[in-house]
Amino acid sequence: MGKILITGAAGFIGLNLARSLIKTNNKIYLLDNLSRGKIDNNFKKLLKNKNVKFVKKDLIKNQNLVEKFDYIFHLASVVGVKNVNRDPFNTINNNII
Q1: How distant, in Å, are the alpha carbons of 5, 10, 21, 33, 58 from that of 66?
Q2: Cα–Cα distance between 96 and 76 in angstroms, integer?
Q3: 76-80 own/partner pairs: CB under 8 Å, 24+ apart
Q4: Model pTM?
Q5: Residue 3 and residue 27: Cα distance in Å, rounded?
């Protein structure tokens, strides 16, 4: 059994990736800062699985992870035209870092 990290796990792509990978019997770590402000029912259902661990973390503020992973899917980003228009430099900077 391997360890998989998905950043941006509460987003659309991260959530659906996690839902697919949970069928592989790997240990899946879901990382998100929940900046969208909501956890939907599919995410809550996923968290009930014994092979899933959720870590609420903002990668910009703290990038230290203790675990070692076999696979990392980095999907965390700030999305939305509104965010880009309001603060383009920080939106792009956060997405690159």
Answers
A1: 12, 21, 22, 17, 15
A2: 10
A3: 76/7, 76/8, 76/11, 76/14, 76/31, 76/32, 76/33, 77/8, 77/11, 78/35, 79/11
A4: 0.86
A5: 5
Least Cα distance to 5 among 57, 68, 78, 86 occurs for 68
Distance from C-alpha of 51 to C-alpha of 26, rounded to nearest angstrom: 7
And the tokens for 77? Answer: 């980003």
Cβ–Cβ contacts within 10 Å for residue 95, how many? 13
1-26 confidence digits (pLDDT tens): 799 999 999 999 999 999 999 999 89
Domains of the chain: 3-96 (3.40.50.720)
Collapsing DSSP to helix, strand or coil, 46 comes out as: helix
